Amino acid sequence: MKRFFSLVFLLACLGLCAGCAALTGSAPEVIPEYVLTYADNQPEGYPTTEAALEFARLVEERTGGKVIVQVQADGEFGSEQEILTQMQFGGVDFARVSLSSLADELPVLNLLQLPFLYEDAEHMWRVLDGAVGQELLEQVQQLGLVGLSWYDAGARSFYCRTRPIRSAADLQGLAIRVQDSALMAEMIRLLGGRAVILSYSDVYYAFETGRIDAAENNWPAYQALRHYEVAPYFTVDQHTRVPEIQLASGRTWEKLPEEYQQILLECAAESAKYQRQLWTEQEGRARAAALDSGCVEIDLTEELLEEFRALVQPIYDEYETLYPALLEKIRNS
Ligand code: GCU
User: Fold this and answer.
1) In terms of C-beta density within 10 A (0-12 exposed, 13-18 middle, 19 or more buried), how is residue 160 classed?
2) In angstroms, rounded to a whole number, what is the distance separating the alpha carbons of residues 219 and 77?
3) Does 142 share its domain with 80?
């Protein structure tokens, strides 16, 4: 009997709730068809993670809540290499990674990050936004990934724990952290340093313990991970521009209806525009903040530039032989 009354009470409550929803006009909650993960190794507030959140917002809006993208910043899914492995199995659905993390597996991608390749940022964007950028974005399919868009990561420069770097002689014998990339390790060797491959999250500690003397990155990363605290001498040599790439797991992609794939591509393109805008603002802000915190900026001289360029020439000899036509197109863009 008691049970019967409880049931009647429950049904009455449900009826009342439905009535309230009808009266207030509140829409019934949408049940998502897909809840997908997105990894980024940069902290919250960084231009790439902010743009990832914008991507997620747009996707939710345009699929009417049917596709939800959950962004995990700060390397919560591990290093970029670990994220890429998980993506190949469909364990992580989307990510933004540095091109350097991918290029060992598909060396043609190195063409976009050769040292001293671009005249300036505009030149890089003409390449990425043009036919070469599109062709190389599509080629990542060979790795079981879908290239969605290019994000900006500015220019990378050297910074040192112990002394200002003003010439190649200053790099001789230094232990210099690089990304997990054969090309970047080779660049360091040609410049006279000793390459130490470490993941991004380990760089600060490696400076603290003296395992490395120098590293290289852009102003926003240098500032966001507080590397200026442990390596205050920043030489603006801008030796590479390494684009960021926004990716989907191929396994995830093939499960999605074409209609959603189309929406995801549109949202990725829009988030990329937004990221570039955030990037431009952040480059100046990060530099100013690092300088305020005691970083010493060393300006690039024409001699240093010429010296570095001559030293890395063997890399060009190799890539000119491997991909002459593509390299020519990049140069003429
Ligand atoms: C860039 C990039 C990171 C990358 C880092 C690195 O700052 O945004 O994704 O991990 O370089 O040097 O490893």
Assistant:
1) buried
2) 24
3) yes
Read off the CATH number of the domain in which 191 is found. 3.40.190.170
Helix/strand/coil for 89: coil
Q: Does residue 21 form part of some domain?
A: no
Which ligand 1 atom is the nearest neighbour of the CA of 199? 13
pLDDT digits (tens, 9 = 90+) for 158-201: 999 999 999 999 999 999 999 999 999 999 999 999 999 999 99
Specify the residue for token string 């952290």.
Answer: 177
Residue 75 has pLDDT above 70, yes or no: yes
What are the E-state strand segments in 116-166? 145-151, 156-160
The span from the CA of 268 to the CA of 275, in Å, is: 10
pLDDT band at 300; cut points 50, 70, 90: confident
41 lines ligand 1 (CB under 6 A): yes
Atom of ligand 1 nearest to the CA of 46: 8
- Residue 206 maps to a domain: yes
200 CB near ligand 1 (under 6 Å): yes
Note whether 316 and 84 are within 8 A (CB). Answer: no
Q: In this predicted model, what pLDDT tens digit does every residue of 89-106 receive, in sequence order? A: 999 999 999 999 999 999
Establish if 116 belongs to a structural domain.
Answer: yes
| Nearest partner of 41 among 116, 151, 125, 173, judged by Cα | 151
Given the DSSP bridges, would you call strands 194-197 and 214-217 parallel, antiparallel or unpaired? unpaired
Which ligand 1 atom minimizes the distance to the CA of 97?
9
Identity at 237, one-letter amino acid code: D
Task: Name which of 1-10, 26-35, 177-186, 315-324 the model is least confident about.
Answer: 1-10
E runs forming strands in 214-295: 214-217, 233-240, 244-249
Is the entire prediction scored with pTM above 0.85? yes
Domain count, the chain: 2
